[in-house]
Automatic annotation (TrEMBL):
Superkingdom, natural source: Bacteria
Organism: Mesobacterium hydrothermale
Function of the molecule: Involved in targeting and insertion of nascent membrane proteins into the cytoplasmic membrane. Binds to the hydrophobic signal sequence of the ribosome-nascent chain (RNC) as it emerges from the ribosomes. The SRP-RNC complex is then targeted to the cytoplasmic membrane where it interacts with the SRP receptor FtsY. Interaction with FtsY leads to the transfer of the RNC complex to the Sec translocase for insertion into the membrane, the hydrolysis of GTP by both Ffh and FtsY, and the dissociation of the SRP-FtsY complex into the individual components.
Subunit details: Part of the signal recognition particle protein translocation system, which is composed of SRP and FtsY. SRP is a ribonucleoprotein composed of Ffh and a 4.5S RNA molecule.
Localization per Swiss-Prot or TrEMBL: Cell inner membrane; Cytoplasm
Protein name per Swiss-Prot or TrEMBL: Signal recognition particle protein
Topological relation to the membrane, as annotated: Peripheral membrane protein
């Protein structure tokens, strides 16, 4: 993650730190390169622009230009700004799951990692937080997806709602709520159907499910490797459904993780978790510090 950006900034700041004192022009030159690096890392143009502006304001201050180690100070300002943009409100990874049974709605496009992430998160809630979790697949179009969730549930020791053919997503969601209530579950997770692209039918279906269960959390699961597309998908889901957070998957790949920065800056929604592989334990709390550190190398 962030290799390109990290290398680029490494090069820029190497030169800076060797120079000693910085003029305003030096700062400008360096930040031009930082901007290019951000764009290469797939950070969107408006986000890169406002990021650079914020850094420039702080970096051209007298304290920096007259300092003995101005290069390091600029690095610190870039680092702090990254943290600021990447950090959401509240504790990273925290979920509103009081008032049992708490519904968690999982949404996203097909192939983004929704079903896998549903199971990973269920496992985490069970093992780490000691919660009783029930999972239900609402993907009535792909029986294989329902079966996949059931198999994952068996693997991780989490119950799934029995599959009943012929029910609508809203009916399945209501049945999940009923079973979660009667069975004394703390959380029930609804794995909605995805599509290859956003379409009206999908959105309407998710809206109906949302209205039927009033989720405590609506998490968008999106492929972190898709960069700008991930951000657009998040915006669209947030406009139509209202999301409470984002899970970026495939962050184990050699993607240009700028999507994380754009995601935060554009949607304003917290990135709660990152997916780091196909295995059930490959889900981690999103940590701005770690990501900023990786960006700067
Ligand atoms: P869905 O259609 O959104 O439900 O997607 P799936 O959960 O079926 O995932 C699609 C594929 O992506 C599967 O092969 C998963 O194992 C894989 N996958 C999901 N999350 C991750 C991740 O964080 N990293 C990697 N490398 N693969 C993932």
């Amino acid at each position: 993650m962030f290799e390109n950006l990290s290398e680029r900034l490494g090069g820029v700041f190497d030169r800076l730190t060797k120079q000693g004192a910085l003029s305003e022009d030096d700062v400008k030159t360096a930040l031009r390169e930082v901007r290019v690096a951000l764009l290469e890392a797939d950070v969107s143009l408006p986000v890169a622009r406002s990021f650079i502006k914020a850094v420039e304001k702080k970096a051209t201050g007298a304290a920096v230009t007259k300092s003995v180690t101005p290069g390091q100070q600029v690095v610190k300002i870039v680092h702090d700004e990254l943290i600021q943009v990447l950090t959401g409100e509240g504790e990273p990874g925290a979920l509103k799951i009081d008032n049992a049974p708490a519904p968690i709605l999982m949404v996203g496009l097909q192939g983004g990692g929704k079903t896998t992430t549903t199971a990973k998160l269920a496992r985490r809630l069970k093992d780490r937080d000691g919660k009783r979790v029930l999972m239900a697949s609402l993907d009535i179009y792909r029986p294989a997806a329902m079966e996949q969730l059931k198999i994952l549930g068996e693997q991780i020791g989490v119950d799934t709602l029995p599959i009943v053919a012929g029910q609508s997503p809203v009916e399945i969601a209501k049945r999940a709520k009923q079973q979660a209530t009667l069975g004394g579950y703390d959380v029930y997770m609804l794995d909605t159907a995805g599509r290859l692209q956003i379409d009206q039918v999908l959105m309407q279906e998710v809206e109906d499910v949302r209205d039927a269960v009033k989720p405590r959390e609506t998490l968008l699961v999106v492929d972190g490797l898709t960069g700008q597309v991930a951000v657009e998908v998040a915006q669209e889901f947030d406009d139509k459904i209202g999301i409470s957070g984002v899970v970026l998957t495939r962050m184990d790949g050699d993607g240009r993780g700028g999507a994380a920065l754009s995601m935060r800056a554009i949607t304003g929604k917290p990135i709660k978790f990152v997916g780091l592989g196909e295995k059930m334990d490959a889900l981690e709390t999103f940590e701005p510090e770690r990501i900023a550190g990786r960006i700067l190398g």
